[in-house]
Amino acid sequence: MLIFIFNINKGIGQISDLDIIVPAGLNGKCGFIDKNGDWAIDPQFSDCGLFSDNGLASFYISDVPEEERFVLFYHPIKKGYINRKGEIIIEPQFNNAEKFVNGLAIVDIDGKFGYIDTTGKIVINPQFEGASDFGENGLAVIKMNNKWGYIDKTGKIIIDPQFDEAGVFCKNGLACVKTNDKYGYIDNKGNVVIDFQFDGAWYYFTNGLALIRLNNKYGFIDKTGTMVIKPQFDFAEPFAENGLAAIEFDDKGGYIDRTGKFVINPQFEEVLSFSKNGLARVKNNNKWGCIDQNGDIIINNLYDYILIYDNIIFVKQNRKWGIIDQKGKLISLPQFDWVIDITASIHLVEMEFEDPTIVFH
After folding, report:
1. What is the rounded distance in angstroms from the CA atom of residue 235 to the CA atom of residue 217?
2. pTM of the model
3. What pairing do the DSSP bridges indicate for beta strands 338-340 and 262-268?
């Protein structure tokens, strides 16, 4: 439950780290800032999404006051796409418009979801109650008659809608699905590979393991369904690229390795996964900071919240957002009203949600 062009050939190419710009809000308007907190595109939109690799981001403009803007079904909106200069490339025409992934974007027209290509042409007619991005195996999750199934990039149904919930296929060829209140995993033919047995399960395998929940405890399985780390934690997140997973045990947060051994003993009020920059966010005394994989404090617990995107670290203080570097040095004073959670990466949209982009105020 997450989130949505003509002449695309206007100098658009792959985006380097130096070119990263992200949405931020100020005085009721949305624009884009760079890694230093400078405006790359002045705040002028009512809302805007993340840029795709093709250089397009969704946007809309509304006269509705900001405090009323996020009330579901409050007012009709139309979304279009801008380029990295802030120029409108596709005029607002969609009820919702997703970020491009693998050459296609989800769009909502009159409460039904379909897909467009990078020319703005509809390639799969809006007909679904819900939809996801296409996975690496070329299949997307769709919802019809209140059940989830899978289609290919032509719109052909490959696995009939039959599941209560379903996730995009992982690199290992498995997808997490739910039926009769239990989760299991299927292959791309719809065959059950891991029986329906879990009370909860993460859609993706990371470091070869998937997070599951049984009897209100969290553990990890491998692609055969073998329990590698038995359910024992009060909370857990999937393994990060560095091979560590955030867990909570006896009301304290710490980190384990793939064997389930504590690498950083539980000692924090809250913990989140390690980011690609090698830092993990931890909370103590009701404030957030960052540690490295040795458990050493790198950024002191000073902030109301922290978001990390590659080498950009957003921090919240006194209801405003700023930017610091990886050693905690201030780059941009807290001044923005909000920033979009650019760590959110699973796009799954349903008809009931008008604009489920995750925004941190």
Report:
1. 7
2. 0.86
3. unpaired
